[in-house]
Hints:
about 160 residues; mainly alpha; Arc Repressor Mutant, subunit A; 7 helices; 2 strands; about 50% helix
Amino acid sequence: xxxxxxxxxxxxxxxxxxxxxxxxxxxxxxxxxxxxxxxxxxxxxxxxxxxxxxxxxxxxxxxxxxxxxxxxxxxxxxxxxxxxxxxxxxxxxxxxxxxxxxxxxxxxxxxxxxxxxxxxxxxxxxxxxxxxxxxxxxxxxxxxxxxxxxxxxxxxx
Length: 157
């Protein structure tokens, strides 16, 4: 699985809103896109498109004007990493652009379908089990911490 730059930037932008916005750790109200872009080293133009996708998905709200900017549309504890990734990239795991459940294989390739479905289920389990609030509080769920702490987690065989 590959996390796109778009998905990475989107999660970082939402996290920045969580800690800077009204319901975050620093109650600043709406946050300007420029502030997010600078804080997270995200190209501003690219971020604007991402924020538009997040707004359409109901993850962020925007307000125009001098006191305007972006804020979370709901509590950070109600937004999962999966929600953010789906908003900007679509389905979390697909094979050739299709959901694994929409595929069929024959012959020796038949065992691939349950493999792809299991992969999707496990990725979803992790990404749907971590909220923006968890990340903002540096409180990842214990199963995620355990997986990340495995010595071979980042090694390629």
